[in-house]
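yo, DUF4142 domain-containing protein is done. seq:
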Amino acid sequence: MKIQCRRNERSGAGFPRNREIERMARSKPMNFKQLILAATAAVGLAGSASATLPTPNPAAATRDNQAFLFNAGAGDIFEITSSVMAIQHSQNPQVRAFASMLISDHTNLTNNTLATAKAAGVMAPPPELSPMQKSMLAQLAAASPASFDRVYLQQQLPAHQMALQMMQGYAAQGDVPQLRQAAGGAVPIVQNHIREVQQLLGSVR
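structure:
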């Protein structure tokens, strides 16, 4: 199986090019806390709204735009951070190609969602990783070289399944029409990620 990494860079003002994150992935390895901060800044999510805003309820992410944007942003940060770690630590070319694809796709998803929110007059709240996401990154950082690929892939499957459920739910019943359309456009991308990770799990020991 060969995974093709798509490079669809967006050059609009105020949005990052994927090469910024790719440079980060190939730079001197950072600990996962540094990677979270770097990934958040690279995709333009840090400080996008007042830090005093209450944390949106995750259960409302399929209906409420603030909860949707918060959780979608946190999901993208998790995917980018874990995939940067994979590029830095995996020795498997297919896993590295998959990680590069995730970085590209989730950067573009973030850019599109933020642009859509702005056009709709919606302010995106600054996202924050959930305790589960932080725990998963810590587990990945502690994984041995022999187990790293499987730990990474085993994390990607449930993370993408949760993202798919949220995207499908908001696309069906979200409160902002423009964001519903953006969520619907993300669905086939996330579905493709799930297919890819399932195939990789069948070949990685």
